[in-house]
């Protein structure tokens, strides 16, 4: 059974009681520059740190990657590579769509090695469905299956679905400062 993403958000009222502030199914976002991937931008916090307490909080899901101290929670569903066509369109149009729908998504991409990217984030990833390969810059690949957790510490990497079914990953990204 395919997981249908759902987001439940709680908050604390001024009287101290806890309530459900939201419960819904987020819509996937796709861009032609990354065919076969659906992004579910669930929640995020401002850069610099997070506070909790009373009153509603609004999510900060863009730019795609947080700056230092910010966070992002998202799901990404990767179609099997065998069912994904190459990006169609001129490079300027593809880049404009990304800038509009998912600003920052391609900031760490490497033009000479499609899919490889590096971000200034500490990422926690959990494979929820399917199988996905994590490729590192030395060419090593690690197969992720449901239940596999990944701690990505700002390293150069790429994701590949070589299976027959879609793969669903949950990511928590924490903006970090890169040391030299």
UniProtKB/TrEMBL annotation:
Top-rank taxon, per record: Bacteria
Q: Known InterPro entries for this protein? A: Cupin_2, OryJ/VirC-like, RmlC-like_jellyroll, RmlC_Cupin_sf
Entries under Pfam families matching the protein: Cupin_2 (PF07883)
Q: What sequence ranges are listed for the domain Cupin type-2?
A: 117-172
Q: What is this protein called?
A: Cupin domain-containing protein
